[in-house]
Amino acid sequence: MPVYEYIALDKAGKSLKGIVDADSAVAARQKLRGSGVYPVEIRESFARAKGAPSRGIYLSRLFTGVKQGELSAATRQLAILLNAGVPLVSALETLISQHDDQVFKKILAQVKESLNEGKSLAESLSQHPRVFSQVYVNMVRAGEASGSLDLVLQRLAEFSEHHQELKGRFRAALAYPIFMACVGTFILFFLLTFIMPNIMKIFTEMNQTLPLPTVALIGISHFLKSYWWAIILFVGGAVVVIRRIKKTKKGRYYWDELKLRSFLFGPIHRKMILARFARTLGSLLQSGVPLMTGLQIVRNIVSNELISEVIDSASREIEEGKTLSNSLSRSRWFPSMMTQMIRVGEQSGEIEAMLHKVADIYEGESSSRLMAVTSLLEPAMILFMGLIVGFVVISILLPIFEMNQLVR
Prior knowledge:
Elements: E1 3-9, E2 15-21, H1 25-34, E3 38-44, H2 55-64, H3 68-83, H4 88-98, H5 102-116, H6 121-126, H7 134-146, H8 149-204, H9 212-247, H10 249-261, H11 266-286, H12 291-301, H13 305-319, H14 324-329, H15 336-348, H16 351-407
Antiparallel strand pairs: 1-2, 1-3
Helix pairs in contact: 3-4, 3-8, 4-5, 7-8, 8-9, 8-16, 9-10, 9-16, 10-11, 11-12, 11-16, 12-13, 15-16
């Protein structure tokens, strides 16, 4: 349904601005007049040709979407407004007026109109799965059922902010090594394809036997200069093939297993998945979501086929009467410390708090291990670059030393 921006006057003659969701401009005017507002100017939020999909909406969905930080801030603001006693529809109108992002304003307007039609907030949010995840919708549904929607929204905002903070630390830790690798590769490629041929031309014109390192360097330089396009095609083709393989069930399974078993980043990846599992399941249970429903939601967000299989197996065993800790303890991917802590939580009736403690432990361990790996990557990359530069320098100096010996 289109969304229209309007400028209108209320009964007191005060100018108002906002957006309204309607089937057409005429319907939007009628809706505004029915609410006691008299439109002066009204236009569709995203201009589009007749019969064609909105280009602005299409591009925004492809490239922009709604940022997680903006969604977290809106969730926290909505929780504050509801806690202060503001009705839900009025709180959404306040959020709509405060945000400048047209995509987000359109989504909030559609959610508000859906509420006016008698639907619940969870049902309204579920109509926008690209913005509101299953975790978000199910926690809101539990909050509505328990009458503690403001607390659930506050918990959702904290959960999202914590996740964004953790992701930001990982990106910051990997930014410098990736930057160094890209810059170093570009400099070496430029050196070997544009600078070295001019230097090596002097040695080849001497018609003398060149040392093996020099011959190897000349061969590498000629190959890169002549077949650089083949390297790009090979890398691009390999990326396409790997992506296609990952889309198959078996290929995705082996790829996920490789990520868990890799020597350098495997333990980090495993701890991140376990932390995500514990944090999300703890938040869902704390919000009143049943255990079986929470496990099905967590299964879809762990993003690993092996862990998903373990969760499916645990769900079946729980239906048969077993506990979560016993079910997870059968898997090699869930360490004994984690299952023991979950068992203590089950026995004490505080499984939600125990899951959050597990998440804190593994988030801290994965963060510290990532920092240690990246701190080792930097000197390793410098050493690797130094070896390559040393090879290039030796390959150039060896013929010069031989020329000096011949002159003597």
